[in-house]
Amino acid sequence: MHSGGYLDRSVTHASPSRLAIVIAFHGAAIAALMLAKPDVIPHVDWKTLTVDNIEAEKLPPPEAGLPPPKRAEKSNIDQPESVVATNNNNSGTAFPPSLPDKDSTIIPMLPPQTAPVMVEARFLKGVEVQPDYPSSLARQEIEGVVTVRVLIGTDGRVKEVQQVSATDPEFFVATKRQALRHWRFTPATRDGVAIESWREMTVRFKLEA
């Protein structure tokens, strides 16, 4: 036995006008769905992508007559070449000077050299230069000449006497004794600074008439 619900009773006892309204409502809904734009409900086409791992050594050999693929060449340029700006305008903009090559030799500019100013040693005024006459040679009335080289210190004193020539050795002995004891000089100078120097001296021994 079938017991009818609310819907069954509404359909059974519905009036013709009410049925017409229901049918018209459903028709309008169907027409709206048919006239709707395609992009209202986007259509997604799902495809399955299959990826196979192909090892390099299992690749088929290249076809005959075709050149092998080119490999990317390694660039020989490790660093970009440095660019030094030069001042070619007259705007007054200062540019840093270019650095010299590491293999170049830099020769420093030296100031011109001038010869040092040398002043020779001189006898002081009032110094007794003439040695005593050797008595043995005086009795024999022997005259002579002796030439010596003397080393003059920075204090003007004679530090060393060397014989260059002598008529008789006694003349040299007398001259050496006199030089070491009594000779005094203004020392030689280089650019105003006192230095040691050698000087050659000649002494004559002559008897008075």
What does this structure look like?
The protein is an alpha+beta fold. Among the domains are: 11-35; 119-205, TonB (TolA/TonB C-terminal domain). The protein has 4 helices and 8 strands; from the N terminus they run H-H-E-E-H-E-E-H-E-E-E-E. The strands form 3 sheets. Strands 1-6-7 form a 3-stranded antiparallel sheet, with no helix packed on it. It has a 3-stranded antiparallel sheet with strand order 4-3-8, covered by helices on one side. Strand 3 and strand 4 form a beta hairpin. It is rod-shaped. The protein starts with 5 loop residues before the first helix and ends with a strand.
Summarize the helices and strands and which ones pair or pack.
Layout: H1 6-12, H2 16-35, E1 118-119, E2 122-123, H3 135-139, E3 144-152, E4 158-166, H4 169-182, E5 185-186, E6 188-190, E7 193-195, E8 197-205
Antiparallel strand pairs: 1-6, 2-5, 3-4, 3-8, 6-7
Within CATH, the superfamily of the domain at 119-205 carries the name TonB
Q: Would you report the number of β strands?
A: 8
Total number of helices: 4
- Backbone structural class: alpha+beta
Q: In whole angstroms, how far apart are the ends?
A: 196 Å
Descriptive terms for the model:
209 residues, alpha+beta, TolA/TonB C-terminal domain, three-stranded antiparallel sheet, 4 helices
Brief digest:
The chain has helices at 6-12, 16-35, 135-139, 169-182, and strands at residues 118-119, 122-123, 144-152, 158-166, 185-186, 188-190, 193-195, 197-205. With 209 residues, it is an alpha+beta fold.
